[in-house]
Amino acid sequence: xxxxxxxxxxxxxxxxxxxxxxxxxxxxxxxxxxxxxxxxxxxxxxxxxxxxxxxxxxxxxxxxxxxxxxxxxxxxxxxxxxxxx
Length: 85
What we know:
Blueprint: H1 2-19, H2 28-50, H3 55-84
Helix pairs in contact: 1-2, 1-3, 2-3
């Protein structure tokens, strides 16, 4: 369960950072989409936790969330690189 907690924490961090993207940035629109997808993924995991616990389903949901986190941090890195150019 420790792995799941780390992934959930990373998702919350990514959501917070995506929310801070400047509206003037070319990355803001894409960041908004990733932020929404992360929020929906967190909701799915929360709903799953309230119902039956199926290990395979949990792994699929966490893998999907991890992919969104990775894509979000990639976007944030590109946005940061734009700022320092």
